[in-house]
Amino acid sequence: MAFDLIVKNATLPDGRTGQDIAVAAGKIVAIEPGIAAEAGRVIDAAAQLVAPPFVDCHFHMDATLSLGMPRMNQSGTLLEGIALWGELKPLLTHEAVIERALRYCDLAVSQGLLAVRSHVDICDDRLLAVEALIEVREKVKPYLDLQLVAFPQDGYYRFPTSVKNLERALDMGVDVVGGIPHFERTMADGAASVRALCEIGAERGLMVDLHCDESDDPLSRHIETLAAETQRLGLAGRVTGSHLTSMHSMDNYYVSKLLPLMKEAGVFAIANPLINITLQGRHDTYPRRRGLTRIPEMRAMGIPVALGQDCCMDPWYGLGSGDMLEVAHMGVHAVPMTSREAIRWAFEAVTTIPAQLMGLEGYGLAVGKNADFVLLQAADTIEAIRMRAARLAVIRRGKVIAETAPRVAQLALEGRPALVDPSHYAPRAAN
């Protein structure tokens, strides 16, 4: 039997080594050692890691790559970023949003990032960014899954036309109901917005993903309302609370009540290490809070937690590279999560867990799944995070859509090796 593609001698995320992956008609048809068959293309993985593609379940593609427009965020703070976005929105054009988004998707593909959930601001009566990203979603469909969230950036109740605009955006085909309850004028308005948005999700049969408690205020507790509404409306598995940074400031007794409620409700959580570690704790002197939500405690409770990038070169964050291994790397350091088990989990938090959160069909490295995967210059998942490993090949539906040369340095040192390959520095007892 002839296949379209065979990847030989791969190491898999679960630790299996010496595995061959055979692909036909865009699907994985076999994973086993020593597949003896012809193929249109054969790739020797050389015992390096093959993993499912990276997934970014929290991003803002309407703002990406807009750094410096109309001016720089000089303070680097969340509030100046929000003000800057307010200045930029009236200047946006349909064509410019599309061009920046497509350029970002090019970068994402090169990084093995083949699925993105992007929030899109609906606090603009033109809904220009919504129209643009719906067009982008169709353009990139052959190589990247783009899921859109109707996001009332300036508040569902606080912005005069958000209620109407959110319904308009969903009618246009936006996939997910979004919100930002902590940005409403009062805690009561924030709680009311959570209830209203969850009811919209229930009525329309859509997922719900709310920016929730993205603050250092220990009394910002909208995740409690979100969990209660998820349970009341039977939305288990369809609701996500993003950021949840207020949880790092809450007292332990309250959290001991909150986490079981989230678990019982079946709510997902998303932390955004790059952004949360830089934007939170800005009012602190010392000791200064890290700003990330309670990831280890949620994991121990059995709450599924994913890691998102959030921003890339936009008014809120002047860094970023579309690299989900950078996100995992920051999460490992900032929480911190440095046990071998926790580092392995961090890899899952940018692959399989966000894929589940987004409801991606056909995702995974198994027979019968879509032939979407990435060959990394690393011995295993821990090594991939340690080095932010090069993506040697990115495969979508069985076709190689991006390739990168191995990261190898040439040395001119007497008595030392001529070449240095960082992937050869893996510990001998890697696990």
Automatic annotation (TrEMBL):
Highest taxon above the source species: Bacteria
- Protein name, UniProt field: Cytosine deaminase
Q: What class of enzyme is it?
A: hydrolase
- InterPro entries (alphabetical): Amidohydro_3 (IPR013108), Metal-dep_hydrolase_composite (IPR011059), Metal_Hydrolase (IPR032466), Metallo-hydrolase_Enzymes (IPR052349)
Q: Tell me the GO molecular function terms.
A: cytosine deaminase activity
- Signal peptide span per the entry? none
Provide the alphabetized UniProt keywords: Hydrolase
Q: Which SUPFAM superfamilies match?
A: Composite domain of metallo-dependent hydrolases, Metallo-dependent hydrolases
Alphabetized Gene3D superfamilies for the sequence: Metal-dependent hydrolases (3.20.20.140), Urease, subunit C, domain 1 (2.30.40.10)
Q: Where is the Amidohydrolase domain?
A: 41-401
The EC number(s) attached to this protein equal 3.5.4.1
